[in-house]
Design brief:
11 helices; five-stranded mixed beta sheet; about 25% strand; about 300 residues
Amino acid sequence: MPESLVIATRESPLALWQAEHVQSLLQNQYPQTDVRLMGLTTKGDQILDKTLSKIGGKGLFVKELEVAMREKRAQLAVHSLKDVPMELPEDFVLAAVSSREDPRDAFVSPRYESFESMPEGSVVGTASLRRELMLRARFPHLVVKTVRGNVGTRLRKLDAGEYDALIMASAGLKRLGLAERIREILSDEISLPSPGQGALGIECLKHDRQTQEAVAFINDPVTRACTGAERTVSRALGGSCQVPLAAYATVADGLMRLRALVGDHTTGEMVCTEVRGPWTEYESLAAEAVENLLAQGAKHYIDKLLCVSEEK
């Protein structure tokens, strides 16, 4: 094992929690190895007045970390897997995917118990087109507005009265010790999670076999297969922040259940699919899900939204 390992991480509280969690796992596994963190501020952390779809997508959260690894200032980076682009640069690899925290979305509000209890015109904050699609489809009487920033920043905006409620990832709230802010965990039947939501991904250079071997014990095969299926669906349909897409896989008794949807967040229209099969055949299940969505007209939504995005 290496004498030292440096983990590149964003400096938001949640990113630091995730990096410190992996740091602890590595230190316990390799007590003789010096495991340190390198905090970096990414472009995605700096631009907070626009949605990700308008400023370049999820890659803005990882680019600076990849530069640090290329320059050998760090050996690995820890990401929320849902923030990792569907296509990694050729010289990088996802070396491990950790077991999953709760992947579902959460309803957060100081005033209301649930979306159903909110009166017409109430304002809900989210930066996710997927969540906006869910809200438009199921709660068309609500007003959806963009909210950016880390978890604490968004909660402060909520408490200041800028929003009546937020829809957030329950995993992040729980990891930061903020579970008491959750009024309701949203059923995945109501709000299907984003590909990779709740899991951590560990990225390193493809040629760095030593680091890949060092983090291999963190990899959870079932979570890797589930998130692999989800990310395969997203990749096949463009894998873009500009398209509202959800994909969520679970495994029970050796069988994977994969659900996916894509739609138009401006109207609430969507197409959905569900496939089942052996979890070890997750790539073929993902291909079947994609085929089903395309047969229902998914390309219409994708082309429409990408065209609108290019015009802007």
